Structures are given as C-alpha cells and as structure tokens.
Amino acid sequence: MSEGTVSSSWRRIDDWLAAHAPAALAMLNPPVTAEALESAQHVLGIRLPDELKESLKCHDGLSGWSSLLPESAPLSASGIAEHWQICMETAADNDGFVVPPWDDEPWWHPLWIPWAESADGKAHIIDLRPGPDHGRLGWAGHGGGGDFSDSWASLASYLGDVSHALHFGGGVRGEFPYLTLDGQLWWDLGEDCRSLNGRPLIPAPVGLR
C-alpha cells in the first residue's frame, strides 16, 4: 500500500527512525546542495527526475552503507553520478547496451538512473526510457541484466510502502523490518528472523510508540 509524496514518506520514515532507531537516522545525510545536484546532472547529461530530486532534497544519501530500506541503500547525488559512470564504462567495454537473445533487457541503459544500491553493488534504478513504464523502479548491473519483474511504478510508491510498513506493520514484498542491538534498521526476508551474523534481531516496533 503506497501513499503520499516522496517528501511526506521521508518525513514519516524519519519520524519512525527518530523514535526507534536514532543511530540509523544519524546515517542519513542532510539535503543535497544545489551545486552537488547540478554536478550530478552534468555528468549524466540529463535532468534527474523530479521524484529523485525531491528525495535528494530530503537526504543526500547515507554516510555509509546501511539496510535502511528494503534491499538497498540510497545514494548521494555524487554517488549516483559515480555509479552511473562506472556502469556506462563497463557496458561500453562489454556490449552491455545490447539486449542478448536470452533476455528482455540489456545489462545497462543510459536512461537508467541508479538512485540506490544493494549490498552486493547491484543498482536500484529509475527507468527513464519513454513509454508507459517511464519512472518505474527495477534492478540492473552487477551479475545480470535489467530486471523489472518485481518493479515499483515509481519512487514515491516504493517509499510509501516503506513508510506504511514502519507505521502500520507488515512487510515490503517479503522484506520485514528489524532492529539490531546497535540501533540500526535491518530489513530481512520473513517475519521470524532471530539473528544477523549471530547477533539477535528484534522485530521493529509498529508506529511511533
């Protein structure tokens, strides 16, 4: 269940983190500067989508990797530009822009914007190609081609689902929130995870109390 705008969802996520996981909240960077935003857009050669700019104006990524969102950590504007450049260079060297016969998507496309990344370096992308799926979220890079089999329609819908899970319970497509002993938010598969690397996990409280 998604609701609200990107900024309203971030406010609700921030409120929840302040109540239950202040160590995780402290990892979120301040809003992006105009200079950093313009520099990233210069590297990509296009304007970032409005939803992504709205997100960066809430938080310019994280100060370090954290499972603060299901499966991914939001990148800073400079991190977006750097990740995009690496994928562009890798694709150019390995025919990565070509759709192989066994797949429906290339390894990379210039209009895929990596707004976040997984622990293993896969990009959580916003697809800016023209058409009915413009703005959807998917995965790309690293060990496989583009994957939109379980995509979100937009960044707003994804963050809305995260906000809803924290405030009203439930998960986000099979990922459920937990707290680590050092106050970090951790998303994992299943509703009955007990530990992470041998250390206890605590089911995340629902709402702000």
Brief descriptors of the model:
four-stranded antiparallel sheet, 209 residues, 6 helices, alpha+beta
Structure description:
It is a single chain. This protein is α+β, with helices and mostly antiparallel strands and 209 residues long. It has six helices and nine strands, in the order H-H-H-H-E-H-E-E-E-E-H-E-E-E-E. The strands form two sheets. Strands 1-2-3-4-5 form a five-stranded antiparallel beta sheet. Strands 7-6-9-8 form a four-stranded antiparallel beta sheet, with no helix packed on it. Strand 2 and strand 3 form a beta hairpin. The radius of gyration is 17 Å and the shape is globular. The mean pLDDT is 93.
Head-to-tail CA distance between termini: 21 Å
- The radius of gyration is 17 Å
Strand content: 15-25%
Secondary-structure element order, N to C: HHHHEHEEEEHEEEE
Helix content: 25-40%
Q: Which structural class matches the secondary elements?
A: alpha+beta
Q: pLDDT average, as an integer?
A: 93
